[in-house]
Amino acid sequence: MLDRGLLRNEPDKIREASLNKGEPCPIDRWLSLDEERRNLLGMTESLRRRRNELSQEVSSLKKKGAPADCQIAESKKVGDSIGQIDKDLSAIENEMAEVELRFTNIPDLDVPVGKDESDNEPVRNSGVKPLFDFKPRPHWEILGNLFDQEASGDIAGANFILLRGWAARLQRKLINWMMDFHSEAGMEEIWTPFLANRESMTTSGQIPKLEYDMYHIEKDDLFLIPTGEVPLTNIYRNTILNQSNLPVKLFGYTPCFRREAGSYGKDTRGLNRVHQFEKVEMVRFEHPDRSEKALEEMVVHVEKMLSLLELPYRISILATGDLGFAAAKCYDFEVWSAGQEKWLEVSSVSNFRDFQSRRGKIRYKPDGGGKPQFVHTLNGSGLALPRIIAALIENNQTEDGTVRFPSVIASEPGI
User: Which tens digits make up the pLDDT trace of 153-194?
Assistant: First the structure.
């Protein structure tokens, strides 16, 4: 959510951000509502003054024993007018709040302007693509029956995962390793609900923009979480932290559920694009002066993970047209997948500035006193599992179909 002062005083900045992100921009409707609201506030202020004057007149006349019927009648009419204006103001406020949820976040100044992922700006590459003296196979061929699509299809439908044997153990091993890695880096481990209410989904920015892509339980108006970002960010909804508590660094494991409504025509083979996947998510609450530095720290943290997994990776800054609705800046991480000969996205690390905290009223009390201020929120995948598993299997395959994993995960029996 954007500050009302920004909407009111810099509408062209809002229009430019929306255009660059390819998002709708209801700024003209908001400005019209804002003007109507201010006019009504002026009217009600005048009417309240008049009602006070009439109250004083009635009191004075009664003290003199004079009739005050006219003043009392006028005061009633004024009160009725104030009541109607209050109803109109409430309706306008509700509509303004609804419109405000549809404004995209403003990209940082160093975010490249572009229409789509082809305009993303490369930052750096690391690692060497593996070389084979045979034709490497995609992970679904190597896994064979261990990637049981028939069983998962019978249980839930297409594009769900069921892993068997060492493939299932690999998933468990990776989750444990990721959790330990974040904990050793000083983050607090959190175990969250895997369902979230509408207010939580609104705070993190999934609603209303992405509601159609969510799995919704209508009876309870609950959503299966699309990312651990949702519950982790909402831990401090409607909370005022002390500045001394910042930064707050959290992480947690969650399954993630996405309908992938807009994925028609995209590659859905194997583990590339599924409706449920596992992920370990990081969320930080930062002082506004530190959020940019915190973003770079999170990028380095993810790089260490990929280096330990011995996965060749590349990092890009997302262009405005590829940047998420709620993000001000985002780094994307992709790893090389040898069997498919393509780069697979495995992590995004984003700074939301105060966009989410305004929605969720997440603030801090400055050390020097004064009015509570909004924190800055950041999050990042550390890491998303299906594609990590795909790349590990494809990059470490042998000609006889076995897989030799990096030492950081090879200690698991059977792997």
Answer: 999 999 999 999 999 999 999 999 999 999 999 999 999 999
Determine the Cα–Cα distance for residues 225 and 277; give it in Å rounded to an integer: 11
In angstroms, what CA-CA distances link 127 with 124, 241, 334? 10, 41, 12
Which DSSP letter does residue 103 get? P
| The two three-digit tokens of residue 267, written as one number | 């590659």
Q: What angle do CA 307, 309, 312 make, to 5 degrees?
A: 60
What order do you get walking across the sheet with 313-317 strand by strand? 121-126, 313-317, 329-337, 342-351, 376-384, 276-286, 248-257, 188-189
Q: Please state which CATH class domain 117-395 belongs to.
A: alpha beta
Q: Are 337 and 387 in contact (CB under 8 A)?
A: yes
Distance CA 268, CA 174 (A): 22
Q: What is the mean pLDDT of the chain?
A: 95
Asked if 355 and 344 touch (Cβ cutoff 8 Å), the reply is no
Fold adopted by 4-100: Helix Hairpins (1.10.287)
Hey, CA dihedral for 94, 286, 239, 325, is it positive or negative?
Answer: positive
Q: 33, 96 in Cβ contact below 8 A?
A: yes
Strands 239-242 and 362-365: parallel
pTM for the predicted model, two decimal places: 0.92
| Domain boundary assignment for the chain | 4-100, 117-395
